[in-house]
Amino acid sequence: MAYGIIDRFEGDMAIIETGDKIISIKRHLLPPYASEGDVIDLKSMKVDVAKTQSRKNKINRLMRDVWEDSD
């Protein structure tokens, strides 16, 4: 499956990073609750809640490690 991450919204467009490229799609094609940082299944245009949460957890762990090491 192809996935992308919502980078930002610009007007009625969603800017999505797919790993090797950045694409723009109409915002209305996404669920109304989709937000920046959500992982999107590009076939169904649905938020993959499990992948989104896993990604957020990984980012939080990395940030925590950086701040703990800075003392």
From TrEMBL:
It holds the Pfam family DUF3006. InterPro entries: DUF3006. This is DUF3006 domain-containing protein. It comes from Caldanaerobius fijiensis DSM 17918.
